From TrEMBL:
Gene3D superfamilies: LON domain-like. It comes from Calidris pygmaea (Spoon-billed sandpiper). Coiled coil: none annotated. Pfam families: LON_substr_bdg. InterPro entries: Lon_prtase_N (IPR003111), Lon_prtase_N_sf (IPR046336), PUA-like_sf (IPR015947). Residues 1-146 form the Lon N-terminal domain. This is LON peptidase N-terminal domain and ring finger 1. PROSITE patterns: LON_N. GO terms for molecular function: ubiquitin protein ligase activity. It comes from the Eukaryota.
Amino acid sequence: MLQIRNVHFLPDGRSVVDTVGGKRFRVLQRGMKDGYCTADIEYLEDIKVTDEEELKKLRELHNFVYNQACSWFQNLRNKFRTQILQHFGPMPGREENIQAMPNGPAWCWWLLAVLPVDPRYQLSVLSMMSLKDRLIKIQHILTYFSRDQSK
């Protein structure tokens, strides 16, 4: 689900809509009403980790991947980094409580938006309801791109 930040109407009737992601959902059933596409949906939220030892490991993984993401971004060519900053804004900071938001840390979503990955792969990561699994996938992507940067 998207939140509209700005709309610019063009003379030919088209419009440019600036949006930011709000809530994740899964389409259960598609339909049509009055010429508009409709759908029954189910909202997605991350499954919370309650075991203290697992939560400690999750925080360690989170901090490692966050640092890896920062390093990848800082090592981009200035041209690419500037374009990303102009379009998406700066990478959100690390959050103290990584489970406070129903969809996990904001920086993960920002990073998934800027990483040059196939949209189908991106969708598979977006639909994950486990922060641990999502962080592992992001870690794999960053490791792959970091190897490319060092060549």
